[in-house]
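Figure 2 data, in text form.
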Amino acid sequence: MRQRRLSEIQRHILRISCRRCARTVEIQAADAVRLYGGNAIWKDVAQRLLDNTCQQRTGRHEEDGCWPAFETP
């Protein structure tokens, strides 16, 4: 699912979690399409959603930011 375009995803709510801090971010699919466009790839959008609210900033590029978990329920 992570390689799909937003317009191809049939779920109403899109959810991504971080393997590092265990934080979860949710967005309605319609809102994601409106903000990022229907052609946006879900993994890129998910990474941006996590990064926009990341609390794990170390200053080191290798360790910085959240680590998305794309497991499907």
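Caption note: The CA atoms of residues 21 and 62 lie 16 Å apart.
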